[in-house]
Amino acid sequence: MSKKLTGKTLFFTTSPRSPMKMIPEIALLAEHFTGKTWSKANQIAFIELLAQDANFEGEGFSGDLAFSARDRINRAPQALGFINLKPTIQLTDVGALFVQKARKEEIFLRQLLKFQLPSPYHLQDDRNTFCVKPYLEILRLIRTLEYVAFDEMCIFAMQLTDYKKFEDIVSKIREFRVQKKQNAGRYKLFYRDIVVSELSEIYEDEIQSNNISTRESSDVSLQKFIKTKRGNLRDYTDACFRYLRATGLVAISHKGRSISITPDKIADVDYILSNVERTPVFVNETDDYKNYLFNPTVPRLYTDNADNLIDYILRRSEMTKAQIEHYDIEQLKDLRDSIIDRNRESIIETQIQQLKSYSLYNEVIDTYNEIISDELYDIPLMLEWNTWRAMTMLDGGSITGNFKVDDAGQPLSTASGNTADIICDYETFGLTVEVTMQSGQRQYEAEGEPVARHLAKYKKATNREAYCLFIAPQINDACIAHFYTLSKTNISYYGGKSIIVPLPLDVFMKMVENSYSAKFIPTPIHIKELFDFAKETAENAIDEKEWFNAVQSKALNWLVA
What we know:
The protein contains 24 helices and 14 strands.
């Protein structure tokens, strides 16, 4: 079913939140439902199947199961051309490549550049508000302004519903930056006033006619209306950041909460901006639009030109032109990718050496403090990455973060849901590390069972003794009780007793501080002693509270004999 465009600002797909997570889901849909209609019954059947899949991250589904299925498939997978739902379910040519082939960033980029408003999937309303390829114009905006801050994207870039408004939006952002400097020290109040002013102008007709009710709320005040619209724009901005980030063309400044073109990809972006048509195509021709959208070769990218690839390879390797001039385009791309991979590995190895020498100690602690005070863009990702850095610094061993990094070695996306966030290999034993910003009952519901399952998976894979360290700003009482019970109970499904030590983030930070201040170099034996203590104490403690308090005390003094 086509969607009628009724809004006055841009919107971006918010489901799934991390775009690469749609890959196992569309593969599952294609495997079991190809050739079937996307009926309500099949929607329910799909979501029930997905809930049982090993790649699924979540707690299952409740309520309207058919809606949950449409939410996951009708949005990004269909809108970006990976799945065709009419007349029957089919994985498109580009969808098959996305599932099966390498260079997923390149495949994904082509589809983002084709996403347009209006289209046969998103029909124009009577006001003719939309005439734009959103991701293309946002890339143009970032390139033009050198960077775009999250707040600038949220309140100004989201007004770019027609590419002919581009220069007006650029002017608005530049003026905003001038005013921001003039309001140094009172930014939050200044920005709040800007938000109210801009949204009041955008929704002037609705406000004047008092048409300001919001879904699922009985509050019909103007304040509630503005707050809801601002929240929606923040969600769309976050989605736009994440989807563009997945192309490899942009970098995120987490501290500055801004997005910019990766220096190494400026030529790629300039090529796109010069060669990709800005006007939406085949707006009223569904078949022609699908042929265009499902075509994995359009639009052409900078890396589709052999000369561009050869130039890149020659500038970044010791190979000569004579050695590679007879390579076909795919061989050249493979060679380019191997150069990028080697460079990334070299960057990460340098980071590891700096961490092990404690030269990045202050930066690690400062990052934790910025996480606690909510000063960074993607807090869960930064918590995973920074904890990998802390564990690398802490006690030796081979420490592997399962989060993804970009070509510059910076954090890109969190670990998948079917594995531990961090794996620590100490040769004679192992350690999984799980981190979360969740709190309260939600922490237990989202983390309780998966933490034990990831530890069991690691035990089975390595066939060695292993433990788990669970870190969060605050530890929920239900999690403490759950981990305490698992440490005392022999469960074959989890590979025996599960020694999972929950620590508040401030306690873990103190462990890092103790490691930095110690007059000797900590070894894996020191970390193992903490888990041996947790195991022994669980057998003798009166209850989970006594156990948790004792473990915290031990962690605070983990290097004291």
